[in-house]
Amino acid sequence: MSTSVVVDRPVTDGRSKARVHTDVKIAEAVVQIVSTQGPAAVTMEAVSAISGVARTTLYRRYKDRFELLVAFAEQIVPMPELSGEFTRQGFTKLIRSFQETFESKVGLRLLAHMMASGDEFLSVWRERVIMPRLRLVSRFFERGIEAGQLRADRDPARIIELIAGAVVFTVVIRGGFPRGWAEELAETLWPTIAAG
């Protein structure tokens, strides 16, 4: 199983090519450090040494290593793209987004480092990265309930926990996702959440 992490090329948003190139170098350095040594090893000095970006440049963009880590976390865990489809197909897309984020962005080794990191980092990670994404997914379920397509007696938080737990368990036990995994999980869970 691969534990590499892919860094998306940032959208330019009007930034110069040099700035985008620097952002990519910083992100790749953070990914390398976090995935091999964990968040505690990310310092401005270490990122500067690996990326070749001057510390003064890093400090102009991030006030401290903590802000740098949060920016990194926000980049590698994208907001899920949710359709307005409250169907098994829409639910399958949601599950696949969990799978793809873990598979191509996070990786088991990186997750292990994150979970083993200090309480302060985990607290910020939950507040700034995980919770906004979970609220978005919860809103998907709430809209489905409002539309009468999903059962009102099912707690969205429990469904999200089931999906996230299945993702981690599958990688740990099976070493990766078998073909059709998202479809199979959606087929298993859909009857418990679909109205009618």
* Helix and strand pattern: HHHHHHHHH
Share of helix, binned: 55-70%
Number of DSSP helices?
9
What value does the average pLDDT take? 81
Uncertain ranges: 1-12
Q: What structural class do the secondary elements suggest? A: mainly alpha
Number of strands: 0
Describe what this molecule looks like in 3D.
This protein is mainly α and 196 residues long. The protein has helices at residues 17-37, 44-51, 55-61, 65-76, 88-106, 108-116, 119-146, 156-174, 181-193. Helix content is 69%, strand content 0%. The longest helix is centred in the C-terminal third of the chain and has 28 residues, at 119-146. It starts with 16 loop residues before the first helix and ends with a helix. The relative contact order is 0.12. Mean pLDDT is 81; it is low at 1-12.
List the helices and strands and how they pair.
Elements lengths: L16 H21 L6 H8 L3 H7 L3 H12 L11 H19 L1 H9 L2 H28 L9 H19 L6 H13 L3
Helix pairs in contact: 1-2, 1-6, 4-7, 5-8, 5-9
